[in-house]
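ARCHIVE RECORD
Type: protein–small molecule complex
Small molecule: magnesium ion
Source of inputs: curated submission
Record status: active
Notes field left blank by submitter.
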Amino acid sequence: MIEIKDVYYSYSDAYALNNINLTIEKGEAVAFMGPNGSGKSTLLKLVNGIISPDSGVYKFNDEEITHKKLQDNQFAKLLHRNIGFVFQNSETQLFCSNVYDEIAFGPRQMGLNETEVNKRVNDCLNLLYIQEFKNRTPYHLSGGEQRKVAIACVLSLNPEVLVLDEPMNGLDPRTQRWLVEFLVKLNKAGKTLITSTHNLELVHEISNRSILFDETHTIVADMPTDRLLEDIDLLKKVNLVDQYYHSPVSREMLKCK
Ligand SMILES: Nc1ncnc2c1ncn2[C@@H]1O[C@H](COP(=O)(O)OP(=O)(O)OP(=O)(O)O)[C@@H](O)[C@H]1O
Ligand SMILES: [Mg+2]
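STRUCTURE (tokenized, with ligand):
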């Protein structure tokens, strides 16, 4: 479904993506992990078509996604309909004066009639338990509430792929738990899930495959998430844990003693 081959990208003179090769199949649940500034958000933006490779090839469903194609509004819209993206700072993607219009924006852009739009918006409000926010200004909601609205906006387009950049950041434990279970349900229902996260406690629940970046902006490991969490030396090497870290596995064992 997603094929990335020999991709390089830089915002200015230094590489943000340095020779990335990656294939993701339909229905997978994949997590991007790595230190700050290693390129996770940049690769998510590339997958979503917000940026395109300086060199190398990105294909979605066998079609190459190029800078030229992305300049065609219709093409870009279709891609965003298939690949939903929840930003690292989800508040930056909300711009309407109320939550209803915010969620309705995508379906209206798709040209759906108001009856269908209304149905989709209400389905999403119910799915995320945010009915009471319907008439609120997104800008005045809390960070966690805004994250839910941003997810609702993405789901209103019923995309095949869900891309979430640091979805657990800033959420309280109960909301994190709710979101984990929600994402697992979506993945079980067939959605492809691509997330970036620093959260070693929850990553094994939202992914079964981890792609690990290091400070050279390249992929240094691609392995089952459970195995990554046990490889303390690798996690230390890429600055994902410090010397005091114990893997969830060894912590469990300690509890049993
Ligand atoms: N808009 C931008 N303009 C210039 N440089 C950028 C921009 N966005 C990111 N970068 C640079 O690109 C590199 C990769 O950044 P990116 O945001 O992809 O990292 P990340 O792995 O998501 O980090 P974090 O864990 O902090 O979110 C960094 O060196 C960063 O400084
Ligand atoms: Mg990031």
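CURATOR ANNOTATION: The chain has eleven helices and ten strands.
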